[in-house]
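Backbone geometry:
***
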Amino acid sequence: MKVRKISEHVLSLGAADPGLQYFDKLMPTPYGTTYNSFVVCGEKKVALLDPVQSDSIDQLLSNLAVAGINHIDYILSLHTEQDHSGATELLWQRFPEARLVGTAKVAEFLETHLNIPASQVQLIAENETLDLGGLGLTCVPIPFAHWPDNTMYWLEEERILFSSDLYGSHYAAPPYKAADEKIHLETTRSYYAEIMMPTSKQLARHLAKTRALDPAIICPAHGPMWYEPDKVLSLYESYVSGKADLRVVMPVVSMHDSSKIMAYYLAEKLEASGIPVNIHHLDNPDQDLRVSMGKVVEDTVDAACLIMAAPTVLTGPHPAAGAMALMLNAFKPPLQYIALIGSFGWGSQIEKRFYDLLPQLKAERLATLLVKGLPTEEDYKLLDDYAQMVKEKLTS
């Protein structure tokens, strides 16, 4: 990742990891990611926002040297997770004159996650401004825009917002090319689904704060900058609005085709009645399960209904369906309805065990439809009725 000039006084000089395949060993990142770090140069003081992940410190130090930055007065931690602040100690060794600055929650978490004593952190309060000489960085806490410690900083003089995880994307654009807008928007949606959606209830007020500031540029912790902030703000506003598309998301796993046959028959009937269905195969042999589940989670950002199609394994759900339930429970998509269809050979407790994995999901549970063995003509009639029931629920 090269040094980029954001404005007359602001540089982007973090690190890129274009080969990263899974963020946190969980979230698929087909375009890699970046660990963004920024330097703001005032007339008297220099501030660096967010040291990078520890294994990327060499990129950061090299970029600082290229930019001619040989002195730092403040190191601001916007969020203490290791991909943001992991290199703090290493950066401090290079710039021992710097003061570490953060909110009280940041100070607490730096001690917890990096063993940096909270007493070494210069505390900054909400709406307090760090004076750099002619420029000031104003603290704007955004608790639970992912973690309790997430913090934005507002550079009013240049209308630049450093937004931490908010408005980010896992996308390492080629170093000497502009970011591809289609990929940027695609990765912003998937990033929202797996990073922001679990705390979506808190985001509306953070969006309102951002709109009130009216930034000209948004600099997130991951991915490209937003030089037209309305694009990402409008996206986020649509995501948190609670409005759902008239659409069914259908994850499918099948061992001997019974559940797959049911899923495709039901999808065909729903499509014929005007209800779009997106099928996602959790048993794709050419695709890591994390990729399949990630696509499902992303698809639930604004879908009205999810119908899980799965067989019974030793009286419970197929492990892929169980993993999918755990993911849904963790990311808490704003689904209106959730349902389960599937098959069994001789007995089943799949319904109880599947829903036992979903205590946090508030969607209304529709009736479960289970078939013993391969579907019969009677079972297809039940699926016809089931499609009609789903349509009526979604269109009422």
